[in-house]
Structures are given as structure tokens and as C-alpha cells.
Amino acid sequence: MVCKKCESKLSKVAAPDPFTSTSSSVKEGSRKIGENKLLTRPGSSKNRFQPYQGKCKDCKQPVTQNKAKYCHGCAYKKGKCSICGKAILDTTGYVMSSK
């Protein structure tokens, strides 16, 4: 769970950009076929995703997003944004078990 403000901070998947080789930018030579834009852009080495760097504040498990404070399970149970910790969802009416 992420709030509207933190949606722009979400990590991107490092997969090749699927585009057709018949586009005009390929014919001009400005783009390469099969180029991974996340790895070739400038400044990508300092913003790389490091999966085991962050820990959840509550359960101390590794988080799966960059700059996240809570794992997905703890964020949902508390109704908070996993990145900034702001309350998003009122969970008082929900029946949630601890495990």
C-alpha cells in the first residue's frame, strides 16, 4: 500500500523496453533495439535497487521497495503507506489476525 504522493517513488522493473524496430527513432539511430533503459541512463548506478538494505520497522524483515519503512504485510495491517508511514486506510472495522 502506497499513498498518492509516494507512487512516484516506487521502484521500476529492470526489463527491456518493448518497442517495434519499425519506429522512426530506430531508423534514425537514436535508439538501440533491446536496450535496457534503466541500466543505460545516466545516474542509474547510484540509484540502484538494493533488495536487502532496508528493514521493516515492526517485524525487521527486508522490505521490497526502495526507501520503504514497512513491509507489505505490516503496512496493510496498520493501514499505512509503506514508504512514508502516513495513515491511508481505517482498519478498525477489519478482522485481521496477527499471523
Automatic annotation (TrEMBL):
Signal peptide from the UniProt entry: none
Chief location bin: cytoplasm
Entry's Gene Ontology cellular component terms: cytoplasm; spliceosomal complex
Keywords: Cytoplasm, mRNA processing, mRNA splicing, Spliceosome
Gene Ontology BP terms: cytoplasmic microtubule organization; mRNA processing; RNA splicing
GO molecular function, one term: microtubule binding
Location of the region described as Disordered in the Swiss-Prot/TrEMBL record: 15-46
Record's subcellular location: Cytoplasm
Similarity section: Belongs to the CRIPT family.
PANTHER family: CYSTEINE-RICH PDZ-BINDING PROTEIN
Protein name per Swiss-Prot or TrEMBL: Cysteine-rich PDZ-binding protein
Species name: Paxillus rubicundulus Ve08.2h10
Taxonomic path: Eukaryota, Fungi, Dikarya, Basidiomycota, Agaricomycotina
